[in-house]
Write a structure and sequence with these properties.
It is built from 12 helices and 22 strands. Strands 1-2-3-13-4-14-20-16-18 form a 9-stranded mixed beta sheet, with helices on both faces. The protein has a 6-stranded antiparallel beta sheet with strand order 8-7-10-5-6-9. Strands 11-12-22-21-15 form a 5-stranded mixed beta sheet. β2 and β3 form a beta hairpin. α2 crosses α12. The longest helix is centred in the first third of the chain and has 20 residues. It binds manganese (II) ion (MN) (2 copies).
């Protein structure tokens, strides 16, 4: 053995996915990603993602758990929580007391929510006031085409679904920015202050009505139009949930079309691949569960976030419908023998901003599924640090099933940090590790992922469901 051969055997280096996959796998990757782009275009809010997941689940033979009084191996069920959170399960052939295999992704993404009293007129233009949701760079949301998605109830209680700005024939909306000619003061500000939250007001109209007895003539015309089109009045915004999202569609990026650019890939890239995996598994030994949660971007709070009791309650329901009874001890046994892949994105090294990354311990676009043992910030604060035993097992499953993977953390130790649902799953007393897709321009209106990583994320969730 030469020294070079010995060195190669003793040392470790991550691999680019394209060095390993063959042409038929490449074709499978492109097909998966074509479907993924449609998923992104049709699911720009958590509600739309739940609808889309439900539609896909029904096509794959899943039924509402409420319709089943008993569950047996091979049954496929779902449960929807408040239209913003969904759990899917395929019942395994093993005794459920040996644990379940859970993959969990989030389907909320950073965006601008409408305030509850959003409409106003200024200088003969009508605007909607917003409150941003999640960690975003405010300057990225000005001067781009925006769409309006959400639901609003009329006074009579009729639910109106809004989706304006996605069809080519639709109008779009926007937040204006200051011309450079007059931006001397703005440009001298820190980037965090260049655009203020209260200036993220969406332009929605500018055609005043001829009405001498009404002062706000543009607001009047917008209200008339909304009433004619949707049957709503200004009061109805008080209870509405309306989200402002980028109006552009998911696109292939590069001459070789190796990347996907789109809004909301954190974390719909993992939500989509998680769904594809649970649909494709055949008769698993352990019960396979996928959960798509809301509110991750604001701390997993609320009754549709991972901190909600929904997950535990649904698992208890599954246990009871399998065994006829679910004591607290039954539930505890199941949970402590279970394991979770927290399927969430990681930061891909951006060669334009290399200085924030420690490259030996970062994840790279094109190098496969990203395994993140711990998240948190500045000294692993608020992190679920996965046990070595569990990480070893996951790595072995990945290697045994030809999943190309890499491991890393978000960035340099002192630079910042972030969290996922992993810490909340860990609190249930379950093994959990973050596994996902590296993203460039994360939390921007146009996030970028590598198709090869998307493909490997899908393969990794499949390998986990079929082999743990
Ligand atoms: Mn995420
Ligand atoms: Mn995020």
């Amino acid at each position: 053995m030469t020294n070079k051969e010995l060195f190669d055997e003793l040392s470790y280096e991550r691999k680019n996915v394209y060095e390993v996959i063959n042409d038929s796998q490449k074709q499978e990757m492109f097909t998966l990603c074509d479907e993924y782009r449609i998923f992104l275009d049709e699911g720009k809010t958590e509600r739309e993602c739940v609808n889309k997941a439900l539609e896909m689940a029904k096509k794959h033979g899943f039924t509402d758990i409420a319709s089943k009084s008993q569950l047996k191996a091979g049954d496929k069920v779902y449960k929807v929580n408040r239209n913003k959170n969904i759990l899917l399960a395929v019942i395994g052939s093993d005794d459920i007391k040996n644990g379940i295999n859970l993959v969990g992704a989030h389907i909320d993404s950073p965006r601008l929510d409408l305030k509850q009293n959003p409409l106003y007129e200024s200088d003969d233009m009508a605007f909607l006031k917003t409150h941003y949701y999640g960690g975003l760079k405010k300057y990225q949301w000005t001067a781009i085409p925006l769409a309006i998605h959400g639901i609003i109830f009329t006074k009579e209680g009729k639910q109106v679904t809004l989706n304006v700005g996605e069809n080519d024939s639709d109008p779009v909306f926007c937040i204006t920015d200051l011309l450079p000619h007059l931006a001397k003061d703005q440009m001298a500000k820190k980037m965090t202050e260049g655009i203020e939250g209260e200036k993220l007001n969406v332009l929605i109209g500018g055609m005043p009505i001829k009405a001498d007895d009404v002062k706000e003539k543009v607001k009047f015309s917008v209200l008339k139009l909304l009433n004619e089109r949707y049957g709503i009045t200004e009061r109805d915004f008080q209870s509405a949930e309306i989200e402002i999202v980028p109006a552009f569609k998911a696109r292939n990026i590069g001459f070789d079309e190796s990347f996907i650019g789109a809004y909301g890939q954190d974390d719909r890239v993992c939500a989509f691949t998680t769904l594809k995996a649970i649909f494709d598994i055949k008769e698993p030994k352990k019960t396979a569960i996928a959960i798509l949660v809301d509110k991750e971007e604001i701390g997993s709070t609320g009754n549709t976030g991972m901190l909600s009791a929904f997950f535990g309650m649904t698992v208890a329901e599954i246990i009871e419908k399998i065994k006829g009874v679910c004591s607290m001890v039954d539930y505890n046994n199941v949970i402590e023998n279970s394991a979770c892949m927290s399927s969430d994105v990681s930061a891909a090294v951006d060669p334009n901003y290399e200085s924030v990354f420690e490259k030996k311990n970062s994840t790279f676009a094109g190098y496969g599924m990203a395994l993140v043992k711990y998240t948190g910030s500045r000294g692993k604060s608020s992190s679920s640090d996965a046990n070595a035993e569990f990480v070893y097992n996951i790595c072995k499953i990945m290697d045994d099933n030809d999943v190309i993977w890499q491991s890393g953390e978000l960035g340099k130790v002192d630079q910042g940090g972030g969290g996922t649902i992993a810490q909340y799953v860990a609190n249930l007393n379950m093994d959990v590790i973050d596994c996902g897709v590296p993203v460039l321009s994360m939390h921007s209106p146009f996030e970028v992922t590598a198709k090869s990583d998307i493909y490997m994320a899908y393969k990794s969730y499949m390998a986990f469901y079929n082999n743990r």
